[in-house]
């Protein structure tokens, strides 16, 4: 049966039949606007040779649109209360598979190898709960999974931060990490009225094209991200103060390194370009 999963009454009836109540702790807000998920699925540009990994399918409204376009869709869901719901709403799609568990604890490289062996390319698509947005995106990028693209819906403020140009006031540590591993952009915005229950903030759909290799060569990634995290942890402080406090470097060492890059001792993290952060890491850690 082809359910209209954007119809409030239909979804309410299905959830009620399975005794489901929304969980604030899991950040559950289901889409009820019938234009959002088709647009997301279209912009993913999936075809019969594409495998799609979805995180948190909810009642399956986005999943259904992905199944119409992709060769195979594998959705990872933590909430066991939704398992019978998804079995009902996606019963018509034989290219759908549900993986039960926590996406942060599953070996995704192994999962992709097993589930998408016949697919030419693999992409990630999801309507992410706000509370796990950054951890999930960072895990997907840092794991260096064999995926070409990540398209996710996140809180609008988070989207602006994730896609902020390095060296802008909006940029933070997560902006640097996303830029290091990929190329990001905001695709479109989604109002709070498009969800059930309605959240207190608006959302945005972003796309990250995953780089085959980082654009900048970093000698030691652990040291690089340690410096980035320290630099942006206390944004109002100068780099001299923030890095000397957290990295165990003297203020003289940091000042000298900045001078070698042609930067003033009063510079803050938000003023640095990507190459500045890379070069500063090499200078401070040798």
From TrEMBL:
Reaction catalysis annotation: adenosine(1518)/adenosine(1519) in 16S rRNA + 4 S-adenosyl-L-methionine = N(6)-dimethyladenosine(1518)/N(6)-dimethyladenosine(1519) in 16S rRNA + 4 S-adenosyl-L-homocysteine + 4 H(+)
Residues at which S-adenosyl-L-methionine binds: 29, 31, 56, 77, 102, 127
Keywords associated with the record: Cytoplasm, Methyltransferase, RNA-binding, rRNA processing, S-adenosyl-L-methionine, Transferase
Presence of the UniProt keyword Transferase in the record: yes
Subcellular compartments: Cytoplasm
Major localization class: cytoplasm
NCBIfam families per record: ksgA
UniProt-recorded name of the protein: Ribosomal RNA small subunit methyltransferase A
Organism of this sequence: Eubacterium coprostanoligenes
Gene: rsmA
